[in-house]
Design brief:
Blueprint lengths: L10 H6 L9 H52 L6 H6 L19 E4 L13 E5 L16
Length: about 150
């Protein structure tokens, strides 16, 4: 058991200990991997909800615009349009929008207007339009009820 005269340290104790090598333990790696998995799963859920919220916003806007155009058509022509395609052919719409949840322009549910009491034989036309999707919105309501 000698002492180093220059540094004043015990030379025998230093020789018994090995220097630690750099690296991570298995526990540290498991903690990091589990945190990454948790954050990724939260990100995926937020992304999916964001996509659904965007589709819902598109649906609301499309329904608002088509209903407004049905009212404008009625005000201009004194009758409701017989089809949504009539809005396109008459120049009220450039094209019929797709329902974002059914991804089709053919699935819109059309609500017919009440027949005119003064002319019961005339076609009543389209009074309202709704989504053809049977899915449920994030707020719990059905898209077909919007």
């Amino acid at each position: 058991m000698g002492r180093n005269i220059v540094t004043g340290t015990d030379t025998t104790s230093r020789s018994r200990h090995r220097p630690q090598l750099g690296g991570f333990t298995l526990i540290e790696l498991l903690v990091v991997v589990s945190l990454v998995v948790i954050l990724a799963s939260i990100g995926i859920v937020q992304y999916r909800n964001g996509v659904i919220r965007a589709q819902e916003a598109v649906l609301k806007e499309d329904l608002f615009r088509m209903r407004d155009l049905l009212d404008q058509y009625h005000a201009d022509k004194q009758q409701y349009a017989q089809s949504l395609d009539a809005l396109v052919t008459e120049g009220y719409l450039r094209f019929l929008p797709k329902d974002p949840f059914t991804n089709s322009a053919d699935t819109w549910q059309l609500i017919q207007a009440e027949p005119d009491p003064s002319n019961p034989t005339a076609d009543s036309g389209i009074y309202d339009v709704k989504s053809g999707s049977d899915k449920t919105a994030l707020d719990g309501s059905k898209y077909s009820e919007w």
